[in-house]
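Next comes this protein.

***
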Amino acid sequence: MSWRAAPILVTRDPENTIAFYLRLGFHLRGHTRTPGSQYLLLERDGVELHFTEVPADYVGGTDSAVYLHVDDAAALYAGWQVLGLPASGTPRLVAPSPQPWGHLEGHLVDPDGHLLRYGNPLPARHR
């Protein structure tokens, strides 16, 4: 038996979410529209992110976070850097840096405020 998990994040603007994640290299794999709601499934390199629409006046928090285990955090950052996202504010893209736990990690915050941390283990000589 194998298991997989995919986060379900909220979006106030599904079309903006689609456009943002397509720019990050994700592919739209599913888009269901029902009266008053939309559901999105975006995928990149086997990673699925699901989004459910909430009303524009939704006051819930954006305490959601996703960790992306990648082969090369520096290369991913370089690929995303061409999008011109700022290093502060929302959305934002922050360069990866070595962490005390032995990973090279950076992060991206999407327009809805969701944190996507990305990283890879550092070689033993860098720990």
Notes: The chain has a mean pLDDT of 90.
